[in-house]
Write a structure and sequence with these properties.
Bound molecules: pyridoxal-5'-phosphate
Helix content: 25-40%
Structural class: alpha/beta
Number of strands: 17
Distance between the termini: 22 Å
Order of helices and strands: EHHEHEHEEHEEEEEHEEHEEEHHEHEH
């Protein structure tokens, strides 16, 4: 490849359309603090995703930290080690002890059947992640939360646009958090959101993201500055216009990868599942070194030599980072599946404008390496 190919690339609207929004911002001089585009985007996202209440944020990490504040979560929270590190950092920033539970091989999500044995008298909540946009076992997790009186906050950072039996995946749990980072299927440069189910909670979240201000002179909590600005919201409004078409293009890329990789022994990938509308945010493959004959890192390095820069999402596991590796739940014997998957996974390039010739090249390299 003469030009480097990265694992992702943002899908941007025509510049001229964004300039129209910029003109409005210049005219109104309303740059942030619940401006007109912020209000419009909250409303449009509710309509688009079929949700009742959404609060926009400057990024997904601050949305996660604020979601934990909004529910006053403390003590211990059960979560997955197989995610982007921000999931667990949000707990750390709230002085909450993370308790890692192993994942399932089929979808890389937290293994709901292993949650109960990790519950202690200090457990207050579960923080699962819909990893790669794969929906968690939401029914079973809800059942456990109901039985033990726990809250659920879903990290839905990867799952914008995903539906389960026709319902937005972001509608599950007490709160659900989205990320609109530049690497995500729906981006506002940086950005995020919390989805909640009633007006009181929406108000509380809105206060918390604005230093705790309830009105000009009343501060109800030690809130933070996590507001989305008008430039971000404007890009979000334009993203909505192009989202459905972008997902169609992603689907085509995924189908091409699946077609070309299907006969390679030792290379596994996800299939579509009935009842789920997928967003094709990532295309992870899992390389079984014994069957394939080469390691995941060998494939990663070979592709890199060819100017194709894949990512090993998620390697290392969060439980392997210095901050978390001393926790009792980080021990290898507690996380056998996650420790296997983290050595096998490789996310191949995928974005709406990815040239299919690149997909062919990537697959040819993976095929040739097997020989
Ligand atoms: C699973 C997950 N959670 C949280 C975040 C944090 O979101 P943000 O980058 O918008 O702060 C990300 C990625 O960016 C993520 O992938």
């Amino acid at each position: 490849m003469s030009k480097p190919i990265f694992v992702t690339q943002p899908h941007l609207p025509p510049l001229i359309e964004f300039q129209e929004y910029l003109k409005d911002i210049w005219e109104s001089k309303w740059l942030t603090n619940n401006g007109p585009f912020h209000q419009e985007l909250e409303q449009k996202l509710c309509e688009y995703l079929g949700l009742k209440y959404i609060s926009l944020f400057s990024n997904g990490t601050l949305a996660l930290i604020t979601a934990l504040q909004a529910l006053k979560i403390s003590g211990e929270v059960i979560t997955t080690p197989f995610s982007f590190v921000a999931t667990t950092h949000a707990l750390w920033w709230n002085n909450i002890k993370p308790v890692f539970v192993d994942i399932k091989e089929n979808d890389c999500n937290i293994d709901a059947e292993k949650i109960e044995s990790a519950i202690t008298p200090n457990t207050t909540a579960i923080l699962p992640v819909h990893i790669y946009g794969n929906p968690c076992n939401v029914d079973r997790i809800q059942q456990i939360a109901d039985t033990y009186g726990l809250h659920i906050i879903y990290d839905s950072a990867h799952a914008f646009g995903v539906t389960l039996q026709g319902n937005s995946i972001a509608s599950f749990g007490n709160l659900s958090v989205l990320s609109f980072h530049a690497t995500k299927v729906f981006t506002t440069f940086e950005g995020g959101a919390i989805i909640c189910h009633d007006e009181k909670m929406k108000k509380r979240i809105d206060f918390l993201k604005n230093f705790g201000f309830a009105d000009e002179i009343t501060v109800v909590a030690p809130g933070i500055n996590a507001k989305m600005n008008e430039f971000q919201a404007a890009l979000g409004l334009l993203q909505l216009k192009y989202f459905a078409a972008a997902i169609k293009k992603r689907k085509r890329i995924v189908e091409t990868y699946r077609n070309m990789l299907k006969k390679i022994n030792g290379v596994r990938y996800f299939q579509d599942i009935n009842d789920i509308k997928h967003n094709y945010a990532y295309f992870p493959i899992f390389i079984d070194q014994k069957k394939y004959g080469k390691s995941r890192d060998h494939v990663y390095n070979e592709l890199k030599q060819n100017n194709i820069h894949c990512r090993r999402y998620f390697y290392p596991l969060i439980s392997q980072f210095p901050t978390y590796r001393g926790l009792p739940s980080s021990k290898s014997k507690n996380l056998p599946v996650a420790e296997k998957i983290t050595k096998e996974v490789l996310c191949l390039p995928i974005y709406p404008d990815l040239d299919l010739n690149v997909v062919y090249n990537v697959c040819e390299i993976i095929k040739k390496l097997k020989k």
